[in-house]
Automatic annotation (TrEMBL):
Keywords: Membrane, Transmembrane, Transmembrane helix. The chain crosses the membrane at residues 163-190. The keyword Membrane applies. It comes from Attheya septentrionalis. The keyword Membrane applies. This is Uncharacterized protein. Pfam families: YCF90.
């Protein structure tokens, strides 16, 4: 009884959502009851005569489609769509419909995208430093403690690495909070290289618009 209710609920949800219905049809329907394959591709292969199945080896083709092709294709599009969704939203709002999107939002949104590319080397550097600190230096200090020996240079390297990691993380958090504060207050800020590239994409601020936000003194200097 409980299983029947759950099946009915899943059936209704599948028909309410077209995407979920297609996903269920091609990926999940073949698992119903563990015996019968009622998905569209199975129905198509079921129409092939047995003699033709033996000659062409359609069973191998069927399992190749279901075990390899469909899962790989589904995961590929799911992964790519997740990565491209933010860029597609940015393009739609700030490029295609930029007349409807305030300059303040377009400026900070573009800055975030450029910052994501610029901060990746620092993020990877922090990861490598953390790995080196905890998986190389710390085990060496533990070995020295076991041997009851002292290596001042090793301890200096441990301290310097820790300080550098803390400084890197602190500077990054401070810069993000600095940028967020300006965005919340409707202001802009100048950062070398990034600000120029942002304004190359979206252009200068329109002073006549009440939605343009705060001042951009560096644009005045260029004029």
């Amino acid at each position: 009884m409980h299983r029947g209710i759950r099946s009915e609920i899943g059936y209704r949800e599948g028909f309410d959502n077209p995407f979920m219905f297609l996903q269920f049809s091609f990926l999940e329907a073949s698992k119903v009851n563990g015996v019968y394959r009622i998905d569209p591709i199975s129905m198509l292969f079921a129409k092939i005569p047995e003699t033709l199945k033996l000659k062409l080896g359609t069973d191998n083709l069927y399992y190749m489609i279901y075990r390899d092709a469909i899962p790989w294709t589904y995961q590929f599009f799911r992964r790519e769509s997740a990565q491209l969704s933010s860029l597609a939203a940015y393009t739609f709002f700030t490029r295609i419909n930029k007349r409807l999107c305030p300059y303040l939002i377009r400026w900070h949104w573009t800055f975030i995208i450029l910052l994501d590319f610029a901060e990746r080397p620092f993020y990877e550097l922090a990861q490598r430093l953390i790995y080196y600190h905890y998986n190389v230096l710390i085990p060496q200090t533990q070995d020295l403690q076991v041997l009851n020996t002292i290596n001042p240079r090793l301890w200096l390297e441990v301290d310097l690495t820790r300080v550098f990691i803390i400084a890197l993380v602190t500077c990054h958090i401070a810069f993000v909070l600095f940028a967020m504060l300006h965005a919340i207050c409707g202001q802009y800020f100048y950062f070398p290289f990034l600000t120029e590239n942002v304004e190359l994409h979206i252009g200068p601020r329109d002073k006549s618009s009440i939605y343009s936000g705060g001042g951009t003194a560096w644009q005045e200097e260029k004029k």
